Amino acid sequence: MNGIGVAVTAQEPPIEIDVRVEQNNTLIEAFGTELSAHVADCWNRAKFSKTELTERLLKCERQRRGVYDPQKAIEIAQTGGSDIFMRITDIKCRAAYSWITDVMSGNGKLPFELSPAKEPELPPEISASIVDLVRQEMI
User: Fold this and answer.
1) How far apart are CA 131 and CA 68, in angstroms?
2) Could you give the CA distance from residue 118 to residue 96 in angstroms, rounded to a whole number?
3) Distances (CA, A) of 52 to 60, 63, 66, 111
4) What is the CA radius of gyration of the chain?
5) What is d(CA 110, CA 60) in angstroms, rounded to the nearest whole number?
6) What is the largest CA-CA distance in the chain?
7) Could you write out the DSSP letters of every residue in 104-129?
8) In this structure, are residues 66 and 87 in contact, taking their beta carbons and an 8 Å threshold?
9) 68, 72, 69, 64: which is closest to 85 by C-alpha?
10) pLDDT (tens digit per residue) in 76-130
């Protein structure tokens, strides 16, 4: 130490800096709010956009199983009608499956061939290194 000292005094930051910090904080809060609103909006649209498709798939699955839609079952029960479901959809699905299987398989043959691959040959230097490793383990 050579005796030279430095005195550090605390100073108040200029008012301009405080105003800028407050503006930045306000912008960050607004951006965060807008971002969260955008994410929530995207999530809601994604969630409800598949509602129509889900209802259609459930209707198809009920037809395949031979079950009326809940609303239709209530209407039939109120009128005293028969709750027998003809299951025509299931018959059509099984027929389509059979047709596709027949077309794809032909005369009991698969529409593609499989043949075994040739057994790969090792390069001589790799074969020699394997033989050397086995000899070393035997010693």
Assistant:
1) 72
2) 39
3) 13, 17, 21, 37
4) 38
5) 31
6) 109
7) HHTTT--SS---PPPPPPPPHHHHHH
8) yes
9) 68
10) 888 888 878 888 888 999 999 988 888 877 676 766 788 888 888 889 999 999 9
Tokens of 109: 């043959």
CA distance 25 to 32: 10
Q: List CB contacts of 2: < 8 A, sequence separation 6 or more.
A: none
State pLDDT tens for residues 21-34. Answer: 565 566 556 666 77
> How many other CB atoms are found less than 10 A from the CB of residue 63?
19
Residue with tokens 């999530």: 43
**CA–CA dist 29, 34 (Å, integer):** 9
Instruction: Identify the DSSP state of 85.
Output: -
Residues shown for the chain = 139
Long-range CB pairs of 66-72, under 8 A, 24+ apart, other chains included: 66/90
